[in-house]
Each structure stands twice: as C-alpha cells, then as structure tokens.
Amino acid sequence: MAPNGSATRRPEESCCGVVQEAREKSAARREKPQPWLVRKLTIFITIGIIGYAFYVYIARLCLPMIRQDARALGGRAMGIGFLVVFCVLGLMMLWAYEKVVLTSPGYAKYYVQKSPAPLIENALPTWWDTESEADLAVAQYQGSHPPPERANGEFEPRPNGDVHRSTNSRRTIPQNGTAEPEEQNAGITDALPPVAAVRAKATAEKGPVPRPERSERQRRPSATRQTGLQPQPLPGTVGEPKPKMFTRSPPTTPILLPQYRYCHKDGFLKPFRAHHCRACGTCVLKYDHHCPWIGQCVGARNHRFFMIFVFWALWFCAWTFSTLVGVNAHASAVRSIYDIDGQQVAIMAFSGLFILFTSALYGSHIQLICNGQSTVESLNAHRMREREERVLSRLHSWWDFRGKRRTRKQWDAEWGRVGKEGHPWWLGGTRANWAATMGASVWMWFLPIGKSPDDGLNYALNPRFDREGRWLPRREWPEELR
Q1: Which terminus of the chain is more exposed, N or C, with fewer CB under 10 A?
Q2: pTM for the whole thing?
C-alpha cells in the first residue's frame, strides 16, 4: 500500500500492461490501410530500376559496339542484334506493366450495397455479431479461462441457477481411445461472473436470447458418437474399417452462407471469392495477393495482365543477364588487359536476382491458375494437406511410404483430390481453369490487350460441393461425376 493509501502496482503488472498496450497499438496500425503515396511509391522505384537497366545496356554495351569503340565487347552486327532484341523485350514488359498498374483488380464496394450484418446461425453463438451490452462483454471475455471449480469437482452455477452445456464444446479423446468426461462449462464464456452479470442485465431488459438449433448435418457427428456407429470402410479396403480419426475429415464450415461472407470492415456481403485487403483497405474481387511492385492488389480484373507482365519481365531479365555475362566472360578470356564495367556488374546482379524471383512467381501462378485457385484459396488446401500428413504419420511408420500413398489413394477414391475435386471453384480440368483467367485464345496469354475474361462476380460452384460450400463425398456427387 502506498503512503497516500492507493494500491501500488507490482513491476510485472506494469510490464504486462505496457506489452499489452504495445500489442494493441501495433494491431491498430496494421488494420489501417496504407496511404496512397506509400502504395504507389514502389511503382516509381520499379520504373527507375528499368530505366537504369536501359541506360547501362544501351549506352554502355550496345552503342560502343555499333560505333566500334576501342572498349566495345563485340562487333557492329552483334550490337545491333542485342539492341533490337533488348528493346522488343523491354517495350513488351513496359506495355504489360502499364496495363497491370492502370487496370483495377475490381473492388467489391462498386458492385454491392451496404447491408446490416447477418445473424450468426448454427456454427457460432448468437452473441458473436450483435451489439448488446451483454454480447460485447461476452466477446471481450471469449479468450478467458474456464470458470472456477468447486472442491468436489463441480462448476459454479450461473446466477440464474442453471448450468448450460455448450453445443460447441470439444471433448478430448486420449490416445487409448477412451473418451474423458465432458466438462460442464467447457468453452462457455457466459459462465464467467463478469459476463453472467452483464448478460443477466441484458436479459432483464430485452428478454432471453434464444440460441439457434443445430442443423441435421451438424448433429450427425454427435449422433454417431452417441449411438456408437462405426465408420464405413474406405473404398478398396478389406476387413475392419479404419478408425474415425484416420479417415479424411474435410472442414464442414458453410463458407458460402452470408454469415461467413460478410465483411464487417466494409459493411457489406462480399461476392464469392472476394477478400478484404488490409493494405488497400477494401474488399477485392477474387483477391489473390497485394503486390507492392504494381502498387495495388492482383485480383479478378488484372490477374491476366499480371501474368503477362511477369512473363515478359522474366524474358527481359534472362536476355539481359545472359548477354552481359556472355560478352564479359568472352572478353576476359581473350583480352590480356580487361577492366569490367562496374555498372554492367550491377545490372547483372539485378537481372540475376529478378530471374529467380520472376521464374518462381510465374511457375507458382501457373500452377494456381491451372488448379482454379487464388493464392489465398491455395492456403486452405495447403493446411488440409499438412493436417493429413500428420494423420498419416500417426497411422503409418515414418518409413512406410507405400502405405501412406495407398491410404491417400483410398481417401481420394472416397472424396476426390485435395485442391482439385476438393476445391469449391474447380472447373473440372486444367484447360478450363486456365481459360477462365487467361482467356481461350493463345494471343491473350502473351499480349496485354483486351479485357480479362474474369469479371469477379460470377462463378460456377463445383458440383462436388453442396450449396453452402461443404465438400461432399464421392457417393453424393452427381451420377455423371462419380
């Protein structure tokens, strides 16, 4: 106690408060969109790098060859040939860069109206998205610890006298397969005394808030546990079925329902495949990623131009790097006295670095487009593959690669492939997915003219999914797709 009668704060409490305040400020800064000038600054940097490459290659390599200077690294014909190819590749790259920079990716705010937030049903409690005093208190305490436990192992009851069991609480299954008793208030934030008091006040003013009934699809797993039904064997297996924990279990989140597509920052229902970009501060149609080199996002309307720009940038860098390295290596081998140009070395370093960057970027986006995925959507498939790898490592020994491959084939026979049949927007084949983004004509793949075939608003749902966005097993697919 301090001399003035006030309670003194311990050093660790003060330190925790400072850390928490710093985290909150950092999170608030991340939520703010970047200023327009900051987003566009890299465009000028990119143009400066390209301009410097033009200067070095033309003025310090090609022109001395054409003029037949003493320090020239080749003949006149070589200089003219190098200059023509370099200018063609450079102009194509600049044309594509101008197109991708000036073409908007497509912003959802121009195509949808603002609307109130939909009520959360089934998957989340009703208080998740409301603005009542009780609901805000519950949301504030959602990360707290479970309520205190009495000496006899029972939980403290609520102020109204009842103890509520959550439909969303989880049960822990130990490795021996025996289920532990489920806790009374596991996962229930309402049982916390501060939350319970505020909820009681709100209930007295507004009346009790009904909790939504779970759908038949959501009740199905619990019913299986209660009745003790065994899972069906995988296709192609003989004998006893595999345990439930070793079968494929795709996410059951209804991602296409309005509750899961509503953007609380922009205040409207996002179109399919749209996501909120934190850097731009708005929702982008078929959001792929925010590219600082073009000063905006890559989305539905400019993804094709982005691919064309990366394609020509790769060839531009490859030509610049290979010719500079080749003529300098030849000159150092045939001349007794040779001083290499430092500025040419700098351009060789830049072009070599960007060869690695653009080739990896172009290859990865080719794979994504052929699978009908954006970068964001591919992360879901990646997480699912990682989860299945962990399951397979528990099911098989680390050296049993054949067994893992056989199990994965059995899962694919039951469900389809992750990232293909298991992707909501897969169109059934590589060519169809490619044409949906890059166009059906070959010239559209290399020339930055026309418009993108993807408008970002209309997408055909994979028939292997239900209308709410859940992956269906093969037995529930349309007959012609099985």
Answers
A1: N
A2: 0.72
Local structure of 125: helix, strand or coil: coil
Q: Which amino acid is at 81?
A: G
- Burial letters 46-80, b for 16+ CB under 10 A, else e: beeebeebbebbbebbbebbbeeeeebbbeeebbe
Joined together, the tokens standing for residue 122 give 């089934």
Tell the burial category of 44 from Cβ atoms under 10 Å away from its Cβ (0-12, 13-18, 19+).
exposed
342, with CB counted inside 10 A (0-12, 13-18, 19+), is exposed
* pLDDT digits 0-9 by tens, 7-59: 555 555 566 667 777 777 666 666 788 888 999 999 999 999 999 999 999 99
Please name which of 254, 276, 257 lies closest in space to residue 267, comparing C-alpha atoms.
276
135: its two tokens: 């609901």
Tokens coding 111:
């195509």
The answer for residues whose C-beta is within 8 angstroms of residue 100's C-beta and 6 or more apart is 294, 302, 305, 306, 308, 309, 448
Q: Quote the CA–CA distance of 47 and 37 in Å, as a whole number.
A: 15
What is the per-residue pLDDT across 304-362, written as a single tens digit (0 to 9) for each? 999 999 999 999 999 999 999 999 999 988 888 888 899 999 999 999 999 999 999 99
